Amino acid sequence: MAEWRAVNEPARGNFNAQKQECIRGHEFTEDNTYISKEGVRSCRECNRIRAYRTRLNSYGIDQDIFDQMLAEQGSACAICRKSFEGESKGIHIDHDHVTGQVRALLCTTCNTGLGAFMDNPDLLQAAIDYLALHRPQEPVVN
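Now predict its structure.
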C-alpha cells in the first residue's frame, strides 16, 4: 500500500491541485477552500451542506419537514416571533432532550434561554414571577 501511495498520490495530488472547482461545481477560491492537516483540499460550501444535512438527520427530519415547520411558523421563532428572514445560522431545531422529539424552530436567544433554564417549566415560571415582582413601577408625575 505504501509503495502504491508513493507512486500514485503525488500524481493524484497534482491532478486535484489543478482543478478550479469541486465535483459539485463550486469554485475553489481562497474563501471557499479548506485544506486539512493532511493537505487534502475540500470545498467549504459542500462541507456546510453536508453538516447541515447531518444536523437535520440527527433530529430525524429532512429538508421537506424543516421547510414545512418554517412555513407553519411563518418563518419566525416559535417563542418571540422574531423573523428568520436573512438568518443563515440563527435557526435552531428545538427538541426535548429526554425523548428527542422535535418541538419547533427557535432563534438563538430563545434557544439559549430555554437551555439556561434546563427546559424546566418550574424554573421558567419562577423567573417569570421574579420579573413580575421586580417590574419597574410607573414614574410618579408631580
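The chain has a mean pLDDT of 87.
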